[in-house]
């Protein structure tokens, strides 16, 4: 019961504060799930985000649903998905039903504009955390290489992120084991050269 | 009955084809709702979209919920939302279940590692778009002021982001409208 309440509160907050659509709520989900309630650690959250990005459909509900499921099964899934979307849908129906002239209204737009840099900062901090974790796992050289290649593919060649992530996953599976000695040798050689 | 089936199809297609999160499915929703079923014209759709953008929460489900409600009441809203959310969520639950089963294998651990820089870039690009968009709307000075103070509050003083977002909403409503 308490778990369900926590799930509800966590994803209610994510839904109500996630200005700018689903992706804006990613750092909020991270804050609740990894930071506050510690339902998963950073590396699990990273896996989840990668897979959620690879699959189609809205991102916020995929994250909410899956985390709800992991924390307490199908009821948790339904609870979290409801919490993240029902309040805002309800707001939307009420607002559009009663005052249709609210859209483009000055103060609503001002609110959206002011919240964007805040979400931007949270997103940037999360970016740095992912980069830093990657660096700890596979070193500066490989991390920068992977990052630059991903950036070029995404921004210059406009390859779909799902394809890039799928290719990375495939590369991880297909690579031969174990290569520890080779890697150490390569790094050492690089340092000396 | 036929109406509910149409609502289901209209939101099932954007849900399954909408790669890149909610916002990616907006043009797909428009195609179904305006183009195929003619439930609203382009003008009405853009008004709904404008309001959906000003409200918090995921965008795809707000559209599905609202348009479903307009067409078929509460049941219509429920069907629209279900069609948007369920297919990809169910796939995700099963795929991740499989992944965690083999969590300790070196291959799965390497998958996690390889994917991280790409996720960092994706998040970084979203961050960049938020900054660029807000700079275009409210200018450099306001944008840097809000970004700087929210960084200090969230990261240095460990204030919960909910409070910082609420403060910024009030500030924006009062001074940036």
TrEMBL record, chain A:
User: Domain of life here?
Assistant: Bacteria
Transmembrane residue ranges: 71-94, 114-131, 143-174
A Pfam family of this chain:
Chromate_transp
Show the InterPro entries listed in the entry. CHR_Transporter, Chromate_transpt
**Subcellular location per the Swiss-Prot or TrEMBL entry:** Cell membrane
The answer to whether the entry has keyword Kinase is no
The membrane-topology field of this record reads: Multi-pass membrane protein
Its keywords, alphabetically, are: Cell membrane, Membrane, Transmembrane, Transmembrane helix
Q: What is its main location?
A: membrane
Q: Does the keyword Transmembrane apply?
A: yes
State the family named in the UniProt similarity comment for this chain. Answer: Belongs to the chromate ion transporter (CHR) (TC 2.A.51) family.
* PANTHER family linked: CHROMATE TRANSPORT PROTEIN-RELATED (PTHR43663), CHROMATE TRANSPORTER (PTHR43663:SF1)
Protein name, per record? Chromate transporter
